Amino acid sequence: MRTKSTKQNKINVVTLGCSKNVYDSEVLMGQLKANNKNVVHEDENDDGNIVVINTCGFIGKAKEESINTILHYAHKKENGEVDKVFVTGCLSERYKPDLEKEIPDVDAYFGTHDLPNLLKVLEADYKHELLGERLTTTPKHYAYLKIAEGCDRPCSFCAIPLMRGKHVSTPIEKLVEEADILAKKGIKELILIAQDLTYYGLDIYKKRALADLLLALVKVEGIEWIRLHYAFPTGFPLDVLEVMKNEPKICNYLDIPLQHINTEILKSMRRGTTHEKTVGLIEKFREAVPEMAIRTTLIVGYPGETDEIFEELKDWVKATRFDRLGAFAYSHEENTHAASLIDDVPEEVKEKRVSEIMEIQSQISFELNQEKVGKTFKCIFDRKEGNYFFGRTEFDSPDVDNDVIVDAREHYVQLGQFVDVKITEAGDFDLQGEPVAVL
Ligand code: SF4
C-alpha cells in the first residue's frame, strides 16, 4: 500500500454508533496489532496517516454524523494531511454504491461482514486464531461482550437487519473463552450486547439459552459484574430472572427497549406484543427481582401516533417509573417495513414529544435518586475529571446512566476498584457520595 509519508504508517480507527460497533473496531484493532501495525483508536492528535471510519447507519441523525466524519477525513486527504481513508460499518453496508459515487475520495468502502478484505488493504492477514481476542477501547476494568450478531426480528422501523444480517449466536464455550481472556487482562465487568440478547441460542441450540450462558459466565474467575443490554420483550426467557436473582455477579439491571405502549402502534411496529403484555412483563420483572433497575428506550412520533396515543404513552411512563429511560424521535427509514407508512407526525412535534417524555423521566429519576441518599452502594470508578472521580453502582451502565461522583479533593478512589460509597446527595441523573470502604 503506497502512502506519501516516509514515516511508519499509523492507522487511526474512528468508531461511530453503538457498543456493537465499538466491539467490531476492537476486533479490527486486535487483528492489526497482531500484524504489528501501529494502530490507535480515535487518536487525540488525529495524526494517523491512514484512517478507518467504522460508521453507523441506523437513523437520520446517526447517518448524518457518519457522513460528516467521512467528509472530514476526505477533506484532510485532499489537503495531504491523510494518505488513505477507508470506511466500514453499517452506513457503508447499507449505502455503498451511493457513497462510492458521492464521496469518491475514500479509498475503499467495506460492509459489516468484510473484515478479511479490509485487513487485506491494510496489508494485514486475518488471523483466525485470534478469535475472542481484541484491543479493548473501554477503561481497563470493563468490556463489552458481543454474544450474537444480526437480528431475525421484523420491527417495522428498524434497518439493522438490512445492515447486520440474520441472527448468529456465538457458542457458549467461545464466549467463556473470551471472558476468561478478558478477566486475565483485569476486566471485572462484562457488558453483554447483541441486537437482541434474548434471542440468544435459538439458532445454534434451538432454545433460548441466555440463562445457560450466564450460568457459564459467572464461573469465570475475576469477572464480578455481568450486565445485560438489548433484551427484547416478546418471548422474554423468564429463567434469566431466576439466574439474576440467585447469582450475585449478574447485575440487578436490565436494558430492554420497549419502544412504545399503545397496542395499535406496537402492532404496526411488528413488536409482537400489546399494552397489557408489556405491563405484565414489567410486573413479572419486579416480582422476581424487586431491586432490578430497568432501562428502556422509546420511539415517539411513529406514524399514527395521535395526541391521544401520546397521552397514553406519557401516562404509562409516569405510572411505570423506569429507573432509566431514553426517548428518540421516529426516523422514516427507506427499505424498512414502516417506509410504506405516511410519516404523519411533524418533526417539531416529534422533538417536542421527546422533550416531554424526558422531562417526565428526569423528575422520576430525581425522586428515585432521593431514596438512595444515606444508603451505601458497591461502586466501581471509571474516570477522573477535574476534581472529581466518576463511578457507577450495579444499577448504572457506562455512558448512559447515573454517575456516582466523589470529590477528589477530599477522597481518593482507585479507578477500576470496587468501593462502598455512602450517597450524600442526589440530583436527577447523578449521585454524590463518600467512599466508606475499599472492597
Ligand atoms: S430487535 Fe427490532 S429494533 Fe432491535 S435490531 Fe432487531 S429489528 Fe431492530
From TrEMBL:
Gene3D superfamilies: Methylthiotransferase, N-terminal domain, Nucleic acid-binding proteins, tm_1862 like domain. It is an enzyme of class 2 (transferase). It is found in: Cytoplasm. Transmembrane segments: none annotated. GO terms for cellular component: cytosol; ribosome. Residues 137-367 form the Radical SAM core domain. [4Fe-4S] cluster 2 binds at C151, C155, C158. [4Fe-4S] cluster 1 binds at C18, C56, C90. Catalyzes the methylthiolation of an aspartic acid residue of ribosomal protein uS12. This is Ribosomal protein uS12 methylthiotransferase RimO. It comes from Aureibaculum marinum. The gene is rimO.
